[in-house]
Amino acid sequence: MRDPMSALTDAFTSFLFGKVETTRLPVRTSTGQAQAVYLPTAAPGLGDSGVIIGREVYSGKGYIYDPFQLYGQQLPAPHWLVLGESGNGKSALEKTYVLRQLRFKDRQVVVLDAQGEDGVGEWNLIAQQLGITPIRLDPIAANDDGIRLNPLDPAITTTGQLALLRTIIEVAMGHGLDERAGFALKVAHAYVVDTIRDRQPVLTDIVEQLRHPEAESALAMNVDIDDVRAWGLDVALVIDRLVDGDLRGMFDGPTTVGIDLDAPLIVFDLSHIDRNSIAMPILMAIVGVWLEHTWIRPDRKKRIFLVEEAWHIINSPFVAQLFQRLLKFGRRLGLSFVAVVHHLSDVVDGAAAREAAAILKMASTRTIYAQKADEARATGRVLGLPRWAVEIIPTLTPGIAVWDVNGNVQVVKHLITEAERPLVFTDRAMTESSAPTLLSEDMLAAELEAEERALSIERSRGNGGPGSATTVA
Prior knowledge:
Blueprint: H1 4-17, H2 31-34, E1 51-56, E2 62-65, H3 67-70, E3 79-83, H4 90-101, E4 107-113, E5 116-117, E6 120-121, H5 124-129, E7 135-136, H6 139-142, H7 158-173, H8 179-195, H9 203-211, H10 215-220, H11 225-231, H12 233-244, E8 265-269, H13 279-294, E9 302-307, H14 311-314, H15 317-331, E10 335-341, H16 345-348, H17 353-362, E11 363-368, H18 373-383, H19 387-392, E12 400-405, E13 408-414, H20 421-424, H21 441-461
Parallel strand pairs: 3-10, 3-11, 4-8, 4-9, 7-8, 9-10
Antiparallel strand pairs: 1-2, 1-13, 5-6, 11-12, 12-13
């Protein structure tokens, strides 16, 4: 039987304050003990459609990313920038991402492989696994019936050919063409295209016309023929290097027959090209324009164009302009461009700072692996990263990165399956040095320590964690 005094107390309090759930005394506790009652809430993910990348460090949830699924609703552009110092996992991420994308039937991937291993490109093993022969661009092999790409390939529009020729010459000269040299190049190209019908025009034809222009070329502008010849002399000397100099063989003939543009994976092996020479940006420009006119088509395919050592593109104002057009054009036709660079300072402080900024603006996805503290702060300022993310970047261990997908910022641990491990753990994959078959206990311990540091930074900043709009000053 209930105590009459308790019943009277309940009736009185109900009369004064309304119905109450309980009259029991409150339980006093500390915030440390009570935190288990209020479980943490993780920031929303990107959805469950696409490619599994790994897991979020903070929540433990799976991290799934696909620019084609996110485009339009969560992504204004499908292009992706991957940053980080050597040995932190960029190679492993690139390779597993491509392998997982190729599981979808409507995917095609082109890789510009600029890293070399044992005399072949870094992607050679994956290409072999898929039954694909890489397209090896090598000036020595090209002279012995190797692969050639013709800048005057009929598959490229006349306008595209002229723009590509200008870019090649400007990269080689280190400055833009003046009006007179540009006119000489234009009339030489127009004459070659109009008169050669029984075969593919080649660079040798352009050089010949620049050295010996036709009279009608001068008459059209009411100028002397000797002036036209003088205006085109420097241009002819530059193109002659592609024809008969240290770059001979790769561009001075018809495009090699038999390149399978319908293959799910196309690998251009650039590992035999000196990465510090002008040959690399010239080669990337030619490959990019050639792919724009032959590979990218208005069909239902989703295409990924992955470029290693992308600073060769972004750091040259002339090549960057070509690729800027390619990115705008390709976006309408289902193209996702993936640029892999070591340092953002490689591109934002160069001669093509304006063009680089435009390309970076089109990259709505940014993945940043470990960097030094000063580099991380500079990256944060350029990309507008939250302050908490900038503080975490120097503490990241291999395989863990900050992902910024149009403002949705997460710390993600990349996971690799046992089937993928032999393909991605090459001499320069993941660690970019000799890597063990399995993760060592030391590496696992280091990853756990990095996760703990990241979590402690988030807790110490309170509301400054994921989802905060605070950016680096």
